[in-house]
């Protein structure tokens, strides 16, 4: 667990401040689910041994969805001054309904010095301002030799671990109690010079142990906003029958991908992708 939250991940139990988004256009609710290209209908393998999550309306909506959209909120202060501020995200279901809100907890020193490698806690709330889960990033920091780790907590219990070793462009997801491992692969263009990452839609394919593809985390083309903000939008798609705990862990993985490749536009990438 990161140093921002040494005890229980629920030590800081303040819900996020609800802010209006007059300057940012968010997806509108739909009567029909959004069409997902390259969608995978069903899980190719049976997943067992995972810890069940406590019921919540947002989790029920995600359990019935085959995709999620994650929109990072624009930060006017950061855009005007260049001072890094904590990230905030809004999560939509397949009908583009806002179901979850996430906000970063980190200190100014880490944001200024470690930038996209910084440690942080990420807290996620539903529309009732009830905490659904929290994640803690540690191990990366200014020492890039350490493995980058994101641990996710639900009701005080660790439910999953996402890790990436130095010079490896695969993120490995291990679900608590589950023998099956997942792998998220970064595309070549995400590892190249930041100028090559701009103005492109970039898919990060998700594989289950054994090599079968079970979905993608797609960073959508940011358009002109690329030049004024590092805020991005992501589409996560997966089989509708994937266990909800794994869907939630893939959602947490999206945040780590955002920090790793797109948070600091000046960060240099290197190396070549190694496929699972």
From TrEMBL:
Cofactor requirements of the protein: Ca(2+)
Coiled coil spans: none
Region (Disordered): 1-32
Record's keyword terms, sorted: Calcium, Lipoprotein, Palmitate
InterPro entries the record matches: Scramblase (IPR005552)
Pfam families to which the protein is assigned, alphabetical: Scramblase
Family: Belongs to the phospholipid scramblase family.
Stated role: May mediate accelerated ATP-independent bidirectional transbilayer migration of phospholipids upon binding calcium ions that results in a loss of phospholipid asymmetry in the plasma membrane.
Protein name, per record: Phospholipid scramblase
């Amino acid at each position: 667990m990161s140093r921002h939250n040494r005890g229980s991940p629920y030590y800081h139990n303040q819900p996020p401040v609800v802010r209006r988004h007059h300057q940012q256009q968010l997806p509108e609710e739909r009567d029909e689910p959004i069409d997902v290209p390259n969608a995978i209908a069903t899980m190719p393998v049976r997943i067992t041994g995972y810890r069940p999550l406590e019921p919540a309306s947002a989790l029920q909506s995600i359990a019935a969805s085959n995709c999620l959209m994650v929109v990072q909120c624009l930060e006017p202060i950061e855009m005007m001054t260049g001072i890094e501020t904590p990230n905030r995200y809004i999560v939509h279901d397949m009908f583009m309904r806002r179901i979850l809100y996430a906000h970063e907890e980190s200190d100014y020193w880490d944001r200024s010095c470690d930038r996209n490698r910084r440690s942080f806690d990420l807290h996620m709330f539903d529309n009732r301002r009830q905490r659904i889960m929290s994640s803690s990033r540690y191990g990366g920091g200014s020492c890039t030799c350490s493995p980058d780790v994101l641990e996710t907590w639900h009701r005080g219990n660790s439910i999953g671990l996402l890790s990436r070793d130095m010079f490896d462009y695969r993120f490995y997801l291990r679900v608590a109690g589950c023998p099956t491992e997942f792998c998220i692969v970064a595309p070549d263009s995400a590892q190249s010079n930041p100028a090559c990452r701009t103005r492109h839609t970039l898919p990060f394919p998700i594989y289950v142990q054994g090599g079968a593809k079970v979905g993608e985390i797609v960073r959508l083309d940011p358009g002109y906003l690329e030049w004024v903000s590092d805020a991005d939008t992501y589409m996560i798609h997966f089989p509708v029958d994937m266990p909800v705990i794994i869907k939630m862990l893939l959602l947490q993985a999206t945040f780590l991908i955002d920090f790793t490749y797109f948070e600091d536009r000046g960060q240099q990438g290197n190396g070549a992708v190694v496929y699972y």
